[in-house]
Design brief:
heterodimer; A: mainly alpha; 14 helices; 58% helix; B: mainly alpha; Four Helix Bundle (Hemerythrin (Met), subunit A); 3 domains; 62% helix
């Protein structure tokens, strides 16, 4: 895309800025548009699970315009602030939450090389930034000058700090199997049929995936772990005092994070953009067959990953409206007595499995040969390559351009 | 770390670029290619932006008198530092900065919130002697750092241009004992000593700290009978049959309470 813009005669920095802007706007739309759809879906699913109908009228059938009507209502609401509140922090808190959720999307790939910024430490970056979302919650709880908010914020802090430990252990297992922290490479290593997904690599990864699901639900503060906003005890928890657009920023951050952890689960365990069935390969499209074929491959991969992430979000909704909320001590017990030891044992098990049976449960079955693109262990002469050609890609685009590490939404295929 | 070495292509001394920041904001897109701004080192501009943010929020930490605001400014300052690392291409270091420092400040923030939920600690006003002492200590440290930074010759000249994006893989390999960076000619790569031993020592150290923390924070079981239990056992109960039923319930209630206290800790 940058090469295209430079080809139009634009100077380099304008081209890079436009490319970065396009990536940012696209990611923003993933969050905002996703929130619109998911809020409607949440209402419908909740209603169906509780034997109700949910929204039926707004926008004709199924009430599909309900979230838009909600949004207009939120825009029109008065922006209130409690009298004893810390004004600066109160106003800042929703944006902190939203920014953390948004920043994590920068490193999440949506298909091969369709990523805001391909980071060498993508997994690490996403997990680190996701942990920052709790800052907004704590600030909101503190600045609201309300006991309900403060209680909710304290619970959230304890919960997030605890659940980061097993979450990190779960995330490390696919990193170990792929031999890299680059999310694009991790996804690409699972190319082929469903059997090459890390979920089915061995029994340990299958179990640790469910530990990851538990921890992910807890880390995005969803029921049955939504103690920070337990409406039966704390009115609405940390966002009790919020209204209007600021409140909706918290909501968008929550749905954005749900989509993010689902997308991360898809990339780490569920093959990323490589479907249960390699549709693109069966149809005869691959990167080698030409530029338009490469775009078709990416488009199919994009739809694949979005579908998986959406399924993950729907799964979280199903869980939310099925299970009762845990008590705070039960939340801690789940984390420290169950999730952490299970994750540790499964990590050790996956390590030994990888050591003795590196092919996985289905060794070599349905996996395309020679498609591993980074391959740092397959360097020249059998030596580990410190900087493989795949990592030097950025320096080959335009030498001396200061902006060349800026985001690329759609890198032109090689 | 390789990322730290990349910093030298940032032109520390060239502050003249700062004067060129203003024109692009005022010009229209059509006139852009004709202007000299295309020659700006945008890397320096972004560096100055992030560095300014980091320094500004650091001053905010000192100037604020509310613990929670201080912690928030500290978060922003550390986050801007992480931005500097990302700008220099040290992605691992940047993510580490976010994970450890910014995430660690979270606990600071929580303690700040817990302390300042009561009125007397909402505003912290240090005495003038404290201010003077810390100002002297901070100024001397700053002058030392500045002298050291400006005395490095390699950082004064023009930048070395673009370096390939460093990967976290050599770092991880070095931690498990394989040095893949700059292997000397003729030696096998695997034969070089990495940082396995320090890594293991630090790991065991952290494990000991964890076990110690769990030991200190565990629910303590009482050895001596508490006054209320002693009272309950010493209470004269007339019929023998009810004494058999009352005593166990008294004990179990005490046990439940101690479990509750332990769980709350």
């Amino acid at each position: 895309m940058v090469e295209f813009l430079i080809g139009l005669g634009l100077p380099g920095w304008v081209a890079w800025s436009i490319a970065a802007l396009v990536a940012a706007v696209l990611l923003l739309n993933v969050i905002a548009g996703g929130a619109l759809v998911f809020i409607w879906a949440e209402r419908k699913i909740a209603a169906r699970i509780q034997d109700r109908l949910g929204p039926t009228r707004t926008g004709g059938r199924f009430g599909w315009l309900q979230s838009l009507a909600d949004g207009i209502k939120l825009l029109a609401k008065e922006d209130l602030m409690p009298e004893g509140a810390d004004g600066l922090l109160f106003r800042l808190a929703p944006y902190v939450s939203f920014c953390a959720s948004f920043c994590a999307f920068i490193a999440l790939p949506f298909a091969f090389d369709v990523v805001g910024q391909r980071l060498n430490v993508g997994v690490f970056f996403v997990v680190a930034v996701l942990g920052l979302e709790v800052f907004g919650v704590i600030l909101a709880g503190y600045a609201s000058a309300s006991k309900w908010s403060l209680f909710g914020a304290m619970r959230e802090a304890a919960q997030v700090v605890s659940y980061e430990v097993p979450l990190g252990m779960c995330v490390v297992v696919p990193v170990m199997l792929a031999g890299t922290m680059d999310l694009v490479t991790i996804g690409e290593k699972q190319a082929g049929w469903m059997s090459s997904w890390f979920l089915f690599h061995d029994p340990f990864t299958f179990i640790i995936f469910w530990v990851y699901v538990t921890c992910a639900v807890a880390s995005v503060n969803r029921a049955p772990f939504d103690l920070a906003e337990a409406e039966s005890e704390l009115v609405a928890g940390f966002h009790t005092e919020y209204s209007g657009l600021r409140w909706s920023f918290f909501f968008m951050a929550e749905y954005g994070s749900m989509f993010l952890v689902s997308g991360l689960a898809a990339v780490l365990f569920l093959g990323g953009w490589n479907g249960p069935v390699p549709v693109a390969r069966l149809l005869g499209f691959s990167d080698g067959t030409g530029e338009s074929a490469a775009y078709v491959v990416r488009l199919l991969g994009l739809a694949n990953l979005m579908g998986k992430a959406t399924l993950g979000v729907l799964f979280m909704m199903w869980i939310r409206w099925t299970l009762p909320r845990l008590r705070i001590d039960q939340v801690m017990t789940t984390c420290l007595k169950y999730c952490t030891p299970i994750a540790a044992v499964m990590f050790a098990g996956a390590m030994f499995w990888q050591l003795f049976l590196p092919g996985g449960l289905f060794p070599g079955w349905g996996r395309p040969a020679g498609e591993i693109r980074e391959g740092w262990l397959e360097g020249p002469g059998g030596l580990p390559a410190a900087a493989s050609p795949a990592e030097d890609r950025s320096s080959t685009v335009t030498g001396g351009e200061p902006f060349e590490r800026t985001g690329l939404a759609t890198r032109s295929p090689r | 770390m390789t990322g730290m070495l990349d910093m030298d292509f940032i032109d520390f001394m060239d502050f003249s670029t700062l004067t060129h920041v203003v024109p692009p904001l005022a010009t229209t897109l059509a006139a852009l290619p004709a202007l000299p701004i295309a020659g700006i080192n945008w890397h320096s501009v972004l560096f100055l932006l992030f560095a300014g943010l980091a320094c500004g929020f650091a001053i905010g930490v000192v100037a604020a008198d509310n613990v929670v605001r201080m912690a928030l400014y500290l978060v922003f300052s550390l986050g801007a530092t992480a931005g500097l690392f990302f700008l220099a291409g040290a992605e691992f270091l940047g993510a580490m900065q976010l994970m450890i420092y910014v995430g660690g400040t979270l606990v600071l923030l929580v303690f700040g919130v817990m302390l300042t939920a009561q009125a007397p600690l909402v505003s912290i006003k240090p005495s003038s002697s404290d201010r003077t002492l810390t100002a002297v200590a901070g100024a001397s440290l700053l002058s030392l750092l500045l002298t050291a930074a400006f005395s490095v010759d390699a950082w004064r000249g023009p930048g070395v241009g673009v370096v390939p994006a460093p990967s976290a893989t050599p770092l991880g390999m070095a931690l498990v004992g394989v040095r893949v960076d700059e292997p000397p000619a003729g030696t096998p790569v695997g034969g070089r000593v990495g940082y396995m031993l320090p890594f293991e020592i630090v790991s065991v150290h952290l494990l000991v700290v964890l076990v110690g923390a769990a030991y200190l924070a565990r629910a303590k079981r009482r050895r001596t009978p508490r006054p209320i239990d002693a009272l309950a056992s010493a209470m004269p109960v007339e019929p023998v049959s009810t004494a058999a039923t009352v005593a166990p319930t008294g004990r179990s209630a005490g046990g439940a309470r101690s479990a509750l206290v332990g769980g709350g800790r």
